[in-house]
Each structure stands twice: as structure tokens, then as C-alpha cells.
# Entry
Amino acid sequence: MIPPIVEDTIVYSSVLILLSLGLTLTYMTTKVPNFAHATISIVGSYVTLTVLVLSLISLAREALISQADSQSFYRLIKSFSFAPLHYALFMALGFLLGSLIGVAQYKLVLKPLSQRGANVVQLMIATIAVDMFLLSMLNIYADKLLEYVVSKANELSSIAGFKVNLGVQTRDFILYSYDYSKTLGTQRLVMIAPVMAADLLVALSFVLYRTKLGVALRASIENPSLASTLGVNVDKMYTLAWALSLGLAGLAGSLIPLKYLVNPSTGQLFVLSIFAASILGGLNSLAGAVIGGVLIACFEIPVFNYLSSHLGISSAYRTVIPLLAMALTLLFIPRGVAGLNWKKLFSRVRR
Amino acid sequence: MLKVENLNAGYGKLQVLHEVSLFFPERKISVVIGPNGSGKSTLLKTIFGLTKIYSGKIIFENNDITFLPPHKIASMGIAYLPQTNNVFENLTVEENLRMAGYNLSKEELEARLASSLEFFPQLKLYMKRKARQLSGGERQMLAIAMSLIRKPRLMMFDEPTAALAPKIAHQVLRSIVKLRDELGITIILVEQNARAALEIADKASLLVSGRVIFDGLPKDLLENPELGRMYLGVTSSQV
Amino acid sequence: MPVEQAYSFLLSILFYMGIYTIVVISLNMEAGYMGLPNFGKMMGVAAGAFTTSFFTWRLAMYLHNRLTGEPIVYSDYVRENAMIVSRINEWLSASPGISLFLLLVTLIASLAIGAVIGYIASYPAIRLREDYLGITLLAMAEVIRVIGYNYKPIAGGTLGMQVPDLFRWAGQHRFSASVLIIVAIALIVYLVYQRMLSTPFGRVLRAIRDDEEAVSSLGRDIVAYRKRVISAGTATAALAGALYALYTGSVIATAYDRVTWTFWPWVMMMLGGAGNNVGVLLGVGVFVIARTTIYTYKNMLEAYVPFNVVWLDYLLLSVTIIAILMLRPQGILPEKPIRTVKPLIRQNEST
Ligand SMILES: Nc1ncnc2c1ncn2[C@@H]1O[C@H](COP(=O)(O)OP(=O)(O)O)[C@@H](O)[C@H]1O
Ligand SMILES: [Mg+2]
# Structure
């Protein structure tokens, strides 16, 4: 049995890695910190919720067609658990939707603005606007999804002859029970999150370091004008980076509700943990983003847990931890772990 | 081959080039010289679509390329060796060379890679090293090797010999002549080392404060007592 | 009845215009003049409100106990705060002199606390590029809020806290009187800023914004200017926070959110024209009227909007930002072009 705190750390750091990796990659291309990053990942969370809702409704309808009584009906609904296909579906859809939004944000907002000569501050406020826009869309969607669930439940009730309740919330929801596996004795997410994070990391580094496309992407990030004179369509490369980054965000977001409470504004605070991880990693290094993600997760869970149980600090202050880590990073190692320790380490190895 | 007409260009609100009109003939080496800050690099960047063009035209082989994005210009057969930041520091030497042949087919790239390495055999020792770890001279060699990978029809060099030892500088200029003679490539060469460059040039232009003040044969420029003294550092006794 | 309604509508607009003028004029100094991306503007407002909730009733109670000789007895000052404040209010309603004294002391304390908090919050990133500074300020504002929400003595935690009513002496004209005072203070702040920013100080700020490279011959001066500006700006916003708390009569940490106190002030500044103080008035006027109208006629709007009207606020915010950036980034009243570098050199010579 893995202790819950270890499970929590593993899942949280996996999610954080995927998010800070993407944030860092988009920052490296357009040089603007994307305040909408976390909210785009919450779009992924709503993908998962939608998959659940649709599955539950079709399950309920089938059960009612085969004339289940109230007791067996609710037993069936309660025992519903995500199948491998569901996981594949919401992760893939989360990725797809995330990358679509990412590309739209880059193509429709950031690129036209920088072509008009917008400065960094203006681009930052534009990403805030995108965040607010998505936030209102998510809220509207949450309302509409709830209306849909209620109307479907009413429709099913009239077929069933008893009151059908699917037990689904569209705000402050957590989908833990649908992810629980009796054979594992815990959630499947504890396996899925780290495996996904590791696989995607390997895949991403393979693409970046072993393929022509990846080398061209790195070249475009480092020196866009040189890359363009060599025939690289830098704009296409940046679009690709945004698609990949926010795809990862959407995928990570699709996993979040399996363990954590989600509502449309979850991204508002979460974005600060992601920024903390990226800044701790140096904001200009993908390896740094990974290290930053793990470190922030460790500060927020085991380290903070220790502090709160030994020093009596209220658990409500957990949100302050990543921000403190960020402030300390900026004060003492403004270029992050990637800017400092790495070089020293490397030069020592070389000598 | 390449024709620039009444070009006004610069960076944002800062205009650097004023009414520049020049012609670069096919299979010839055209040298552009001028004092520091006169806009030589800006001229090359403008041809490649990297600056802001306010008005004017750039015609390459009867195609108007004035407002094309750089990667399209590259695919039309124009190559460019920038004066600074001309290698990717975070990529290895090999990755740099492969980037230089981005548009080539795989077989062609391998062949060109081999022949361009013949030019600078030292680079073979550093293939897996990051370009940032190279010395200034080695970096410049890498940049030139990169520019030789493609077989463009027009090649623009921005002060290729600046950071090089005289012997290697001479070698580089000779290789540029070879590009013209053996491959028939049209060349625009921007040089500080004006004398050596003018020796290999077929045509010379002098740019001062973003304006063309001489355009003609190298010989005429060298012999022009006023311009020669002012801009070539040639004293009258040398002439 | 409609006359009364119209009057309270008008009062409400004047109130918000006063408060927002104070916030936005200070933001304009930071962001419009100096290009300092203060995405943590709410921090100052919260600092003023928390100063009021923490400090004012304590001082009032002290004075009450000293002057009346009938000490208020209590055991848990957080839980019994409403009782304490109502006793204080009774006493204050007959003492306009003491009320105004308390108002003055509260405002001075808020200015001081605001300046200190602005200094501390910006310290980690004050030497770094704008994007780092923007992220840091946004994060630090969140820290202030999390502390205000969870540390009960400050603002009563989740339940909030009452603050003494320093306008009660005006009897039935309480609201008119307080709005009058707030508008007067806003006017004074406006004139002070207008004065201050038309001296060489304002020109130096613009020079720093427009061409940091050229001004960096001043070396550490840029950092010193940044520190001064962020402290002054946060102190000014704290003034608004204190007034807001005193007018509404209570403080609850959840009321100090990014959207209301950071992003809306940004939009107001951008619409009017960053770097133009008259533009600030225009931006504040337009959005205060628009938002108050939407809020007042919420129920009527419901029929025309196919979703919950609450989200209209976010949508309006995001769409306005993007529209301004795309169509008129300089705002409706662009700042007057001035030569920024020359005066700077003169200023430099004189020092
Ligand atoms: N990226 C740039 N942004 C703004 N101004 C530039 C830039 N590059 C060059 N300049 C300016 O353009 C002018 C011409 O520069 P350049 O073309 O590099 O001259 P040259 O190559 O002849 O030495 C100079 O005044 C220089 O300061
Ligand atoms: Mg040059």
C-alpha cells in the first residue's frame, strides 16, 4: 500500500510537470507568460465531466429499457467506473480541445497583437483577457451542462416511473469514485498520471532532440530570424509549440477532477503553482520546468504537511507555499534551477 | 538577377535606408562597402524580409519579393550569412549544419554536408558539441559552412571575414570566388575589409548613412581620390 | 419611489467613480506612465480594507472606553465583533468630531500600510524584467488575500468583519455625506497626481517606460523609481480600500478579487488612454456607469441574455480588453506626445 501522501505527491507532481512544461514552452516561443494556461487545462476537466455525463446517461437509458427497478438501477449507476476506453477518450479529447484553444489564442490574439507592435505588458493583459473569456465560457458551460443533466434525468424519470438522479455536479465536482479500482485498492490515476507524464516527457524529448521538426522548433525558439532565413516557417513552429503545450495542459486537466475538486475558477489559483514551478525551473528550460514541477509539488504536499503538523500552520495557507518558493527563487536564483545548478553540475562533470 | 528600387526601410520608426536603388548582376560578385552604421547589414536584412519596408521594391529573377516572409524568400534560392548571431548556440554543430539544409532532400543534405565539411575539417571534431562552446573563429567557420550547405542562386555574405585570422579570411574570400566560378552563384558581399573584397569584386557600391553614394566598377571606386581617402582608408600615396 | 431609486442609483455611481478614480489614477502612474505591469493592484485595495477592519474598531473601542468610562466587555473579539461595532456605532453617531478623527487616522494608517506592503510585495522582482514583476505582483496580491481570508483577527476569516460607521453622525444623510467625502478625497487624489505627474518626475517615468536602455545610464535609479512608484501606487489604492470598507460597513476577504480590483481598473485605464489622466476619468466613468447599469438591471437583462447575467461581466471585461488592444491600443484619449529623453538628461544634470 502506498501512503496517501505519496500518492498525492506523485499525482500532483505529474500534473504540475505537464502544465509547467507547456507554460515554459509557450513562454520560450512568444516570450509572454500565458495567464490563461491553467484555465485551458480546466477545459480538459470539463471534457472528462462531459464524458462521464454522457456515459452515465446512456448507461441509465439502457438500464431503464431493460426495465430495471429503482434499487438495481441505483446499484448500477453507483458502480459505474471508467473503462480504459473512457480514459483514452477524455485524455485524447482534452488534448485536442486544449491544443485547439492554444492555437486560437496564438493565431487570433497574440500573433496579430505582436504584429501590431504590442509590448510584453499588453500581451500579458491580452492573455488575462483570454483567461477571463474562457472562465466565463466555462461557467456558462457548467450551467448549461447542469440544465442538460437535469432535463435528461427528468426525461429518464418519466420512463422509469421513479425519480432518477444521476448524482452529477457541474461545479465543485470530484470524480474520485469513478476512478477507484478495487483490484488496485486505490485510484487508477496513481498509475496513469505518472506513466502519462513520463511517456509524454520521453516523447517530447524524442521529438525535440531527435527529429528534424524538433530541431527546427528549438532553432526557431533560439533565433527566429536566423531560422527563417534558413527556410523554416517560424510561425508554423510556434503554432505547433502552442498546440503541443496547451494540448498537454488539456490532457493534464482531464485528469485533475479524478482526484481534486474542480470548478470553473480552479485555474485562477492553480495558475500560480504552475508559474511557481516554471519560474523555479528558470522559465527558459524544459528540464527546469520538470524539476520545478516536482519541487513545487514536494513543497506543497510533503514539506507543507510536515510544517502544518509540526508547527501548527493552518492547511489553508498551502496556496502561499508555491508563491513563497517563487519569491525566494526570484530573490536568490532569478534564473531558476536550470540557470544555476545545472551549469555548475555540467562543468564539474566535464572536468 | 536582383534589383532593389527606391527602397526605404528601417526598424519600427527608425528609418535606416533612404531611396536605395541597386542592381546585382547574375554570376557576379557585388561588393557593398561603407562605414559602420551606414546600413549595409540593414540592406541585406531588408532583402531577406527581416526589417520594416516603408516603400520601394525588391525584384528577384522577375519576381517581386518585397513583402514575402523570410522562409519563402529562402525557398526561392536566396541564402544569407548574417553578421552576428549567425549560428544557433544551443544546437550542436551537426544540428546547426542540418538546419542550414532544412529545405534539402535527405540525400542531397548528406552530400552537401560532406563537401562543406571538406572546407573546414576542424568542424568534424566538434560535431556533437554545442555551438556556444566554440571560439569566435570556429563559430564563424561554422556559419560559413552553413551558408555553403545550400546551393542557392543568390548568396549574401555580411562581413564573413570579420572575426577570422588573415590566412583563413583569405581562404574564405577565395572560396567565395569559387562559388561564383564553379557553381555560378550570384554573390552580394558586404565587407569592412574593403581592399581585399574589392580585389575579387566585379561591381562595387558604397553606402553612406543609408544612401548609395557610389555604384560602379571596383576599379573606379579605388581610384576615386575623394571617396577612396574617406571611405577606404587608402592614402593618396598608396594609390 | 422612482426618484428615490434614481437618487440611490446616482449615489452608487458617484461612489464607485470616486473609489475607482483613486485606484485607476494610481495604476495609471504605475502602468500608464512607467510601464510597470501591476497585475496585483487589488493588493493595495485589500491592504486598505484590512487595515480598516483590523485597526479602526480597535482604536474606536479604545477611545470609547477611555472617553465614556463604560468599557465594552467581550471574550472573543472576532466572534463578537458585530456586537462591539454596534456599541461603538451608537456612541459614534453622536460624535462627528471623533468620527472624522477616526476617518483621518484610518486613511493615514492605510496609506502607510499600503506603502509598506507595496514595497515588500514587489521586492523579489523589482530588479527583474516586466513579465517577472507582473507575475510576482499578481501572486503577492493573492498571498495578501489568502492571509486576510484565513487569519481571522484581520478580517474575520470566512465570515468577514464589521467596521465602525464613521458617517453615522449624518443620520438619514449618511450615504450622501459619505459619498460626498469620498468624491472629495478622489478629487484631491486626482489633483495631486495630476500635479505630481506633470513635473519632471512624470517625464522620467515615461522615459523609463519608453526606452529603458537609454535611461539605464542612471543605473540603479530605475529600481529606485520603481520602488517609489509601486509604494506610492499601492498606498493610494489602500486609501480606496479603506474608503470602500468604511462606506460598505464591513470587510470580507472574498470581496477583494482580481477581477474587481485589478483587471477592471486595467480596462478603465486602457480605455481612457494609458498615460493620460483625463483618460482615466473617462475610462472610470464609462465602465462604472456600464457595470452599475448592468448590475441594477440584471433582472431585466436576464430575458435577453441566454445565460446567467453574472458571466456577462467577465465577457465584457475580456472582449473590451481585446478590442482595445486590437483597435485602439493607445485608448480613446492617447497620451500627448512629449520628448521624454531630453528632459531626463536635464533632470539628471540638475541632480
Ligand atoms: N535591430 C535593430 N533595431 C534598431 N536599429 C538597428 C537595428 N540594427 C541596426 N540598427 C541601426 O541601424 C543603423 C544601421 O545599422 P547596420 O545596418 O547594422 O549598419 P552596418 O551594417 O553598415 O554597420 C544603425 O544606426 C543601427 O544602430
Ligand atoms: Mg553590419
Residues 120-160 of chain A form the longest helix (41 residues). The first strand of chain A starts at residue 180 and ends at 181. Chain A has one domain: 4-263. Residues 325 and 331 of chain A are 10 Å apart (CA to CA).
